[in-house]
Amino acid sequence: MSLDHARPRRRLRDHSFGLARKLMRVNWLFVACVCALAGVGYAALYSAAGGSPEPYAEGQIIRFVAMLAVALGIAMVDIRTIAKASWPAYAVGVLLLLVVMKFGHTGLGAKRWITVGGMEIQPSELMKLFLAMGLAAYFKRATPEQTGNLVFVLPALAAILVPVALILKEPNLGTAVITGAIGATVLLGAGVRWWWFALVVAVIALSAPILYHHLHDYQKARIITFLNPGSDPLGAGYNIIQSQIALGSGGLTGQGYLHGTQNQLNFLPEKQTDFVFTIIAEEFGYFGSLGVLGLLFAIIGLALYTAVSCTHVYGRLVALGISTNFFLYCFVNLSMVMGLIPVGGVPIPLISYGGSALTAVMLGFGVLMSIHVHRYVEFAGPDEA
Fold first, then answer.
1. Model-level pTM?
2. CA–CA separation, 215 vs 222, rounded Å?
3. How far is Cα 335 from Cα 341, in angstroms, rounded to an integer?
4. Is the pLDDT of residue 320 over 90?
5. Residue 220 domain-assigned?
6. Structural domain boundaries enclosing 105
């Protein structure tokens, strides 16, 4: 069911208010939860370095503070101004993906990063936000008749397939799947018929054996390792085996901060990035892990509240896309470290070390906060993007 028609319409009110009033309308509980999660990340990265702020924790918290200021700045921008920039942002995202193909840095056999202004960025992370914005701009005035018309929906499908194809080309299967899932979620929220997606999923499932043969060797190895980690315990299966040992060794209350054996003895692989949650589980145990999960779900819940409370379609759809992106980050990473899905190189937001994911998430949160601040504005007139 479309988010636009899921509940009775409320009277739209146009709030053109000053900076002080906008600051009062920021969802400060959401900001507090985000800061708390960044604090958890600092503690985990401090432990990952053996009890030192360098080389991970210090740089991460500096980036977070800078991006928090940027996010709050974005929150002060009228959401209608942001809406007008939706398709230009999408075009920039596609252009950056093309630049990656030509000039990107190669790591582990994949081209995913480019250097902009002395900083390495991963355009595929930014593309997820830009895609949600572009699709929301396309559907913000769509009628039920239009969303049920395949001809009208085809341009939106093309807008999803273009970045997904470019990300697959890098190759980056995990991010490509998440990007496609975000696009599909926004389309469902706009009112596109669900059975179209069910048909696509069925076709993909039936094509799985064929698709498997077109995967890269390292992707096939990840699937084989997922099905049987013990088949290569010192090679491809090493990461997930050590991760599961760390998760189990924490027990109910953990081994104590800075006292996790798997972490401090450097048995944990990629402990500052993909497997950082294992540090939390080992040192703080089940209860500590549950607390972090509660914080993650609080952020997702508050983001969805912004989507539900927003009175304009553009804001609801973008907020839905941002919420979905954050949820999928968490779901994929946590499932990966627990061995529920193959390892895919997806970080956990604001906890894992790395600039690209943090930058992309905080930019998305800035747009989300702008939607919350301006959730009652009117999108009136053809000039509104």
1. 0.88
2. 11
3. 6
4. yes
5. yes
6. 19-373
DSSP string, 104-136: PEEETTEEEEEEETTEEE-HHHHHHHHHHHHHH
Q: Are strands 119-121 and 110-116 parallel, antiparallel or unpaired?
A: antiparallel
54-68, 109-123, 148-162, range with the lowest pLDDT? 109-123
Alpha-carbon Rg for the chain in angstroms: 21
Structural domain includes residue 383: no
* Residues forming a β-bridge with 119: 116
Tens of pLDDT, residue by residue over 39-76, are 999 999 999 999 999 999 999 999 999 999 999 999 99
The dihedral built from the CA positions of residue 169, 172, 173 and 176, taken in this order, carries a sign that is negative
Q: Is residue 159 part of a domain?
A: yes
pLDDT of residue 9: 45
Tokens of 226: 């997922």
Question: CA-CA distance, 125 to 224, in Å (whole number)?
Answer: 27
Among 70, 44, 72, 112, which residue's Cα sits nearest to residue 353? 44
Digit-coded pLDDT (tens) for 354-375: 888 999 999 999 999 999 999 9
Cβ–Cβ < 8 Å for 354, 329: no
Distance separating alpha carbons of residues 300 and 185, to the nearest angstrom: 15
Instruction: Render pLDDT for 324-351 as a digit per residue (tens, 0 to 9).
Output: 999 999 999 999 888 888 777 789 999 9
pLDDT band at 31 (very low <50, low <70, confident <90, very high): very high
Residue 5 falls inside a structural domain: no
In angstroms, the CA 367 to CA 322 distance is 9
pLDDT for position 14: 44
Count of CB atoms within 10 A of residue 58's CB? 15
Return the structure tokens found at 95. 């252009």
Asked if residue 292 lies in contact with residue 330, where contact means CB atoms within 8 angstroms, the answer is no
User: d(Cα 372, Cα 366) in Å, to the nearest integer?
Assistant: 10
Task: Say if CB 331 and CB 300 are below 8 A apart.
Answer: no
For the chain, the domain total comes to 1
Are 244 and 338 within 8 A, CB to CB?
Answer: yes
Helix (H) / strand (E) containing 177: helix 173-190
Tracing tokens 């929150």 back to the chain, one arrives at: 75
Report how many helices (DSSP H) and strands (DSSP E) the chain contains, helices first. 17, 3
Q: How confident is the model at residue 13 (pLDDT cuts 50, 70, 90)?
A: very low
Can you tell me the distance from the alpha carbon of 133 to that of 86, in angstroms, rounded to the nearest whole number?
Answer: 5
Residue 5's pLDDT is what?
A: 47
